[in-house]
Amino acid sequence: MGENENATKTDFIRSKITDDLKLGKYSGRVHTRFPPEPNGYLHIGHAKSICLNFGIAAEFTGLCNLRFDDTNPEKEDVEYVDSIKEDVKWLGFDWQERMFYASDYFDQLYEWAVQLINTEKAYICELKSEEFKGYRGTLTEPGKNSPHRNRSATENLELFSGMKAGKFEENRYVLRAKIDMSHPNLHMRDPVIYRIINASHHRTSSKWHIYPMYDYAHPLSDSIENITHSLCTLEFEIHRPLYDWFIHALELESRPQQTEFARLNLTYTIMSKRKLLELVTEKLVHGWDDPRMPTICGLRRRGYSPNSIRNFCDKIGITKFNSSTDIALLEHCVRDDLNTTSKRVMVVLHPLRVVIENYPENQVEELDAINNPEDESMGSRKVPFSKEIYIEQNDFLEDAPKKFFRLTPGKEVRLRYAYYITCTQVVKDEETGEIIELRCTYDPETRGGSSPDKRKVKGTLHWVSARQAVDAEVRVYDRLFTVEEPDAVKDDDGYEKFLNPASLEILTNCKAEPSLADASVGSRFQFERQGYFNVDPDSASSEQLVFNRTIALRDSWAKKNK
RNA sequence: UACCCCGUGGUGUAAUGGUAGCACAACAGUUUUUGGUACUGUUUGUCUUGGUUCGAAUCCAGGCGGGGUAGCCA
Prior knowledge:
The chain is built from 13 helices and 25 strands. By secondary structure, it is an alpha/beta fold. The protein has a seven-stranded mixed β-sheet with strand order 10-23-24-25-21-22-11, with helices on one face. It binds one RNA strand of 74 nucleotides through helix 5, strand 6, helix 7, helix 12 and strand 19.
């Protein structure tokens, strides 16, 4: 499956581009951009946009730029720039030499603002922000012209260069576009295009005291970069007339067009940058890369592969309809990818000691185990077997129902790649009644897991030889929220009530097969019969290996027993 | 209640005036040395009312429902 290269995508944006190309627009060029603001970490919703923009560029033999929309120094930081670059790269996309910053264009943007002043399309306004609101009108009433609207170009120019030179305190003046104070679209009511900010910028430091607004900087940056199709999310739809207005007012040759699509919503998660930041700062999670976070770095640490995320982005489609994608689809995509790529291995999460009474005391056998039944080229490995092993606690039941295929007194099961065993005795703690050990016998004729008489054994258990076992910690994750739409709560910050208290369970007494002893950080495995796991970076500083559970295997037995 | 956008199974999407299809989910079964994978089957849909048309999910009009917009954020 994977890439689905022949499956031509036909969403409305690609259709539009195809039409544009037929009409000979942009002389056949397609050039997109991914324009994050460096004020937070990228999440799965950004991945949708990244896959769209870079994907379209690749499909139409065009280009896609990475551009940091860094017009607000108060919120932005290099920390975010670095993480964004890393995440886009990790997802598998390449901006080649085309990494830009809106701040690269501040000089040009300033010149163009001067041009707008000279053509009487912009003016300096000194309304206080309270007054400003009064003049703007409301959704249902038109606004009124600012008393400074007809200031002379000369005076405007003088004030604007004073603003630039840092002569004024913040909020004293703004530069506004002169459009129409009675326009039904509020964004067209003489919007602010420059404001005074006396903060240090992460790239231009103290060079500027004025910073352009998004609505002004974005279309012009697109135009400078010769972008043809500027793709953004639905909430910018109402900004489009402004986007076009600046490009026309400045009579620019390069005229990109903006098209909007619906952002990604995922069930059981939140996607707002503000709320994700809150989870981090209030220590409700352990950081931006907490494996429970929907951030790219969180998913990476959790064990998601870039391919699985790209496949997911292909499957969700692109529309203008506000929808909510079932997180089960994401989970399907990661299982689907990891099934074909990850090495099988045996790890016991909740160990129960089993002594095989008729097995020779000090004997150790090296048994063959297949690394991946989906991919023969991944070969096989040896797993040690001995008299004492661990199995999973829930693979034994003293009083088992009919459909229970696992170990129960008197019934035979298969140990994967090893032998058939039968439970003969249950050893319990005299005080608590807790099962502490099982006594079993094995059939020496069943080495490797099959018998000469072909007798049927329904259950197969994973196991680990006790003496060779490697100790491990396993972090088992569940969804972060208990409700499908934590974002939909009325009182805006009440979503914390819906945090899942069981979203992280730490198991510290796990037993892994010895081949895992030197597993490297980040490597992904399937723990047979349990799920997909990867090695957490904490392994480097921890006494024992630390694994994250990426996702459990589908489990029709557990489902039936709910 | 101003303007703009959007309504297709439970969910996400396709069909561009001509047989409503795919995926996920759910359910049932086959295979299986992972109760995994694979495979097969089943259930469920065009918001509504009119109109145009031989023919409408698609075009038109009204209604209903959802979303967006009043930062000197992006």
